[in-house]
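Morning, I've got a small favour to ask if you have a moment. I'm working through a protein record and want to make sense of it properly. The fold is given in discrete form, as structure tokens running alongside the sequence. Can you walk me through what the tokens say about the fold? Thanks so much in advance, here it is:
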Amino acid sequence: MRLQNAELGPGDARARSGPLFERLRSLERRTAEYAYVRNTLVELNMWIVRHAARRFPARREMSDDVLQAGTIGLIKAIDRFDPTRGFGFEAYAVPTVVGEIKRFFRDTTWAVHVPRRLKECRGVLREAVVAFEQSEGRSPRVSELVERTGLSEEEVVEGLQAADGHEAVSLDAPLGSGEDGTDIADRLGAEDPALGRTDDLVTLAPLLAALPERERRILTMRFLHDMTQSQIGAELGISQMHVSRLLSRTLAGLRSRLGGAV
């Protein structure tokens, strides 16, 4: 039975589905016969899912997931379809199947987490951009997208930025078309280790200003001009040992006051 259904074309599937829908309406849900008839309808109308899935180009490894999402939409359509309303099942099922596939892409294929609101804005903007480019022959400005979509300027800007989150690029990807071997990772900045000293320097500044002039001068010559203790002693007319004791005492005092300030 399943093999025969799989080999049926859309015309034969439509013809066989009509009586089965009538039969399904007469059956009680959650019975074995109801499940059998519904499963048969799913098999007969899988061509709708396959047809809808072709509208959404996907990587090969995702194709089964796309079909599964479309099948969920097909089952929902079968459960809700009322043949007495006077329209065909195909016209009723296609929007539901396509909607489930769109929801699959929206919820599961983004490389970066993006709020659902922005994902929906992205879909609206994508259609508006395509329509504008086809009619005007150029890319639209933000103000023109605002006018066409009814979205606010902030929503348009955020929606366009959200499009970049759909796919991620490897940090090892080459940068541009050059052959110099440069990749994206080579252009990423790193944390400046000197930034960690900023708070210390801001805290230390008033402590240094409070030191006696000679001690400030010794620190300047030692750490700013990189002079040796002997050179500092010769400059100030004191011994190298005296310079060493002054440096040790001054640094110890700064460490103590700096610890208290933190």
